[in-house]
Amino acid sequence: MTVLASNLKPSGSQLLPRHVAIIMDGNGRWATARGKPRTFGHRAGVEAVRRTVEAAADIGIEFLTLYGFSTENWKRPEGEVSDLMGLLRLFIKRELSVLDKNGVCIRVIGDRSRFADDIQALLKNAEKRTANNRRLKLTIALSYGSRAEIADAMRSIASRIEQGELSASDVTEDLIEESLSTVGMPDPDLLIRTSGEQRISNFLLWQCAYTEFVFDEVLWPDFDRKHLEQAIENFAGRERRFGAVL
Questions:
Q1: CA dist 66 to 61, 120, 192, 246, Å?
Q2: Which residues are annotated as a binding site?
Q3: C-alpha distance from residue 202 to each of 72, 117, 148, 218 (Å)
Q4: Which residues are substrate-binding (predicted)?
Q5: Using one digit for the tens of pLDDT, what is the confidence trace for 28-64?
Q6: Are 33 and 27 in contact (CB under 8 A)?
Q7: Mind listing the domains of the chain with CATH numbers?
Q8: Residues 231 and 41 sit within 8 Å (Cβ to Cβ)
Q9: DSSP string, 86-105
Q10: Measured at the alpha carbon of residue 195, what is the angle toward residues 204 and 5, in degrees to the nearest 5?
Q11: Residues annotated as part of the active site
């Protein structure tokens, strides 16, 4: 196991975020800068995922959520989407045994019905196989959009009201949270976006109400443990007031 940087504290410390979410951006620009097709960047991005999961587990992060494929990404050229689906298949098949052995619990959020049957089966098997692992809870957002997630939650609650199971006065923030796909997970303490873009692109809108943001100029394929530690150090230097005056 890699030794923690001296100024990073183990799990449970106020200085270490319990839940880190990452918007992995910049694969296409990374490839273009090298005169390569965008798919070349996506392949390099898979290596960055591997490094980041390993680093997060070593550092002691409890929850890591990666924005892998948004609902908007389906609008990309057919060839690029096909290549991304191939990389998803390859990643699960190649990495599942290693992730399981290293105590990583996998969870997938998003509309997986849009994926091919074999990918749906791979995702279900990955979740089932790693369900009892506790070292790191890895959530991958695939075919995910936060507005759709919230709309689904509202439909679920509305249906329960129609059936007489709930009344309008029962609708609270806690009930909404229990109806989201992230139920059981703490809200992200820290959200990192690579590539220098400064927006959250329909990612965990409800959950990020009091999340600290770090926007890093590095393109995702170049992201490594050093960048993760720097973001955590940035987080550790902030005063989180959650709307209160301390």
A1: 13, 18, 10, 32
A2: 25-30, 38, 42, 70-72, 74, 76, 193, 199-201, 212
A3: 9, 26, 9, 21
A4: 26-30, 38, 42, 70-72, 74, 76, 193, 199-201
A5: 999 999 999 999 999 999 999 999 999 999 999 999 9
A6: no
A7: 19-145+187-236 (3.40.1180.10)
A8: no
A9: HHHHHHHHHHHHHHHHTTEE
A10: 85
A11: 25, 73
